[in-house]
């Protein structure tokens, strides 16, 4: 009886995940259209005009709530 880890499947999953994002970029990032800075994709908001970072999205939401 063996509990060999399916390393091939794991490796395949890793490779496809990397390709699904930005190939060649280790950390997925984008340029925020609101502040113009490079930000991480995590927590960003996609708009029709582009992407905004999490901080700008929060500020935008706060402005919308206040108005
Ligand atoms: Zn921003």
Overall shape: it is elongated
Please indicate the percent range of residues in DSSP E strands (runs of 2 or more).
Answer: 5-15%
Question: In this structure, how is the largest beta sheet organized?
Answer: 2 strands, antiparallel
Number of helical segments with 4 or more residues: 2
Order of helices and strands: HEEEEH
Question: How many DSSP E strands?
Answer: 4
Task: Describe the strand arrangement of the main beta sheet, using strand numbers.
Answer: 1-2
**For the CA atoms, what is the radius of gyration?**
18 Å
Helix/strand-derived category reads alpha+beta
Helical proportion, percent range: 40-55%
Small-molecule components bound: zinc ion
Return the average pLDDT rounded to an integer.
81
Q: Please indicate the count of domains.
A: 1
Structural key phrases:
67 residues; 2 helices; single chain; binds zinc ion; two-stranded antiparallel sheet; alpha+beta; elongated
Provide a concise account of the structure shown.
This protein is α+β, with helices and mostly antiparallel strands and 67 residues long.
């Amino acid at each position: 009886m063996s509990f060999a880890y399916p390393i091939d499947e794991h490796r395949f999953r890793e490779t496809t995940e990397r390709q699904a994002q930005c190939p060649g970029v280790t950390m997925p990032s984008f340029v925020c259209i609101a502040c113009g800075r490079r930000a991480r994709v995590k927590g960003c908001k996609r708009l029709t005009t582009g992407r905004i970072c999490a901080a700008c999205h929060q500020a935008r939401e706060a402005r919308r709530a206040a108005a």
